[in-house]
Amino acid sequence: MGAFKAYDIRGIYNKDLNKETAYRVGYFLPQLLPCDFVVVGRDIRLTSDEIHDNLCKGINDRGVDVWDIGLSTTPMVYFATVYLKAGASVQITASHNPKEYNGMKISRSGAVPVGGDSGLKDLERLCSEGVVEPVVPEKRGKIVQKDIHEAYLSYLKQFLPDLENLNISVDCSNGMSNLYVKELFGDHAKYINDTLDGTFPGHEPNPLEEENCAQIKEAVLKNKSDVGVIYDGDADRVMFIDDRGRFLQPDNITAVIGAYYLEKEKGPVLVDIRTSRSTSEYLKKKGATEIITWKVGHAYAKMKIREKQCIFGGELAGHYYFRDFHNCDSGILASLLVLQTVASLKKEGKTLGQLLDEIIVYANSGEVNFKLEQKDEAMKALYDEYKTRKPDKILDFDGYRIEFPTWWFNVRKSNTEPYLRLVVEAKSKELLDEKFKELEAIIKKFK
Fold first, then answer.
1. ∠ Cα 30 34 38 (to 5°)
2. Tens digit of each residue's pLDDT (9 = 90 or more) over 269-310
3. What is the pTM of this model?
């Protein structure tokens, strides 16, 4: 069952998963997470209704109720899991993937994620090997509609800054952020791709790919905006464009939001293995007691934040994790906090771009994808080559990161897509270019 990944269930619909998968997930989920009801939400993808109907049928056939919150962002489901005191929840979504994909993100009580190492492999085994025996009709579960829109909106509004003097451009990517952004930003923002459309006609709902940010960059410059905001398909991630139309690498935004929290309280901050030294050094300067580097992915990050009692966490992919949001990620909440910083900067006569110029002191490649047949062999070749060059440090989880005094690189396999991913950073652009070419030459031997 190839749709069961490290963080969630996801793949091309009717190839990697189908309505039978959805039914079996629904039927066996209460065995994995015993509960009286399961909260279910869904995104706008064209196949989400079919998954929803079959998932709910499976849950009901187990004798368990569904509390259906309807169309929702993924963070809205996390909120509902806690707000409604659910023992389990499912968001039907493929997040940022193209329209032919779909999937499910599963959480347990407290919005704790169910990932490969925390129950998802067990669920996969049950779905593959388990026998379905529906309960008798009189014990069958039912579907109960629950409207939590206003409750979640009220929660978000407490983080809303004074927008009076801000000029904002927002790209909703035809995705789930459309449920909330206009109620939050009103006339202070100009919107594009602001209709719910599961075909994603504006662009693919993945703002980490810069080509998908072309429209918001253009809008920022045309509107003379202070900042551009672009959400992914299910609104658990967000990226930012500065006043100059420049795409801001999300790990550097971790520095911006982290500094916001560190002004209020000192403590550890979580980053992922791809994070720039610029961000780590800035956070230390702002008072972070420890920078904890960990694996990529929400299922890993949320558990580590709980374990280490981090005040905040961020990833290169644009996930930002908040202790005051049950250690979960929320693209809209992240954007509200960045807007607070932008508003404060504007009062001081500064811009977000100027702040980022202060933060970024290294040259960085961003995450570059290589489509390879021999990913493991390429990773081994890189490791064998560079471990002999006396590195300062090797982090050997989630791929690996090899660090030298003036540069470092991270290489890892995607958990959701057929790519080998490479990040390189160096003290200068010249050194970055030199090292990137070295690494690229080794990788391309394995195409």
1. 55
2. 999 999 999 999 999 999 999 999 999 888 889 999 999 999
3. 0.95
